[in-house]
Amino acid sequence: MKAAFRKPMRIVQGGMGVAVSNYRLSRAVALAGGLGIVSGTAIGHMLARRLEAGDQDGDMRRALEHFPIPSLAEHVLKKYFRSVKKSGETRFSNIPLFTVEPHFDLIALYLAGNFCEVWLAKEGHDQPIGINYLEKVQLPHLLSIYGAMLAGVDCITMGAGVPTQIPGILAKFAAGESAAYRLHVEGATKTHTAIFDPKQIDPLAGERQLRKPLFFPIIASSLLAEIMVKKSDGDIDGFIIEASTAGGHNAPPRGVLRIDEHNEPIYGEKDIVDLERIRRLGLPFWLAGSYASPEKLREAIALGAQGIQAGTIFALAEESGIAPEWKKIMRKAAYERTLRVRTDMLASSSGFPFKVAEVPGTSSEEKVYLERIRLCDLGFLRTLYEKNGGAIGFRCPSEPVTLYLRKGGKETDTAKRKCLCNALTANIGLGQECRDGYVEPTLFTLGNDTEFVRTLCSGPEDTYAVRDAINYLSEGLTEKKRLTSL
Ligand SMILES: Cc1cc2nc3c(=O)[nH]c(=O)nc-3n(C[C@H](O)[C@H](O)[C@H](O)COP(=O)(O)O)c2cc1C
């Protein structure tokens, strides 16, 4: 089997958006001997908001000093950094919405934001660091990948779509060339493409010798793995294989959709990945979705995997980006075994099922959801569609219904849609406050399995750090060594 890293990576920390897997979490994982993966989703916006919130610990400004295109770093700082918040000023700036030819602010924020996140996660050690993107969020890809490569990112993971175009893009950027991304546009009568030519923005592009990161698609079927290998326009270096119990977005069940009494999709035999077919591909793979225990790590290795990817165990750890007060509530509920996580078919505008943790006071509650007046001001999950005349339009089923219908959307698609963009930024303490004082509510995603909390915490109020989680998981290694000494 092809090797991915110098040493086998047994524990991969999932790239969890928005900024749950931030640079602090991933750096802590790397220092404890695992593979840290930062989330690249919406990270340009998070750079702006962190700077607007005063960049309290100076991390963003320190990373920006190292950003290799200084004029862009200056632009970002000048526009977004506020050393002192004016009283009563709690709103974050509106940033232009992404289009096929993005506004200069977005170019600067996404190149710099991806750079900073990876640069900070890599600070002070030489362990590999990866970055995660959702294929479905197409428009930032070229800028994000180039920004992450400027920081020397070691691998990219990508799910929520079929990312066959990414390997070719990695090769192009590594060769100092421009790259293009064919966009998925509903009702398209022609090909629509986003293009990024680094030379137009980076005076030293072409001379930089950027290293090509490894690429690991996230898949939930052996067929998709085979398609990725056959149809990708470059190298696939391994797979993350995610079961339907994993946190975040899930693949829909295969075959005819069946729903249980709680309105959750029923997954069955067809959804179990055929590992024999995966092994035949000869590429390293990691198993994800309720694998956060020593026993499951051992089982994964016995099945031929390099190890596991875990999310929830790291999302609830001290170092993750989730606001501490909410993490405490969820850890307590997990400890008391009262935390329910459901698979919501409608919550995400992406159209993929999404795991929702039922936490009082969040949009998982009907009354909190209904209080929110529909508004689409971040727009990461908007769908692209072709308008009469061939231009591209943008619509999101959780935007105001009349707007959505005017854009040709169907009313049935709007029911029970949550605004994940705003909720997920609120989760990490960077939520928007509206002009009338309304504060965007939170909405959390976790995997179905939170049983590890019972081992890692001594009681319902207790907490744990990344190192505790990794020490616990590594009990499953037959090597009988701490990961750090592997
Ligand atoms: C809070 C949270 C956010 C997540 N966000 C993403 C994401 O943005 N992209 C992604 O590929 N996977 C995401 N995931 C999935 C994880 O990367 C990982 O594969 C999954 O959590 C593994 O299952 P487990 O939660 O049972 O450990 C997320 C998971 C959680 C818990």
UniProtKB/TrEMBL annotation:
Gene3D superfamilies: Aldolase class I (3.20.20.70). CDD domains: NPD_like. Keywords: Flavoprotein, FMN, Oxidoreductase. InterPro entries: Aldolase_TIM, NMO. One of its GO terms (molecular function) is nitronate monooxygenase activity. SUPFAM superfamilies: Inosine monophosphate dehydrogenase (IMPDH) (SSF51412). Transmembrane segments: none annotated. The keyword Oxidoreductase applies. This is 2-nitropropane dioxygenase.
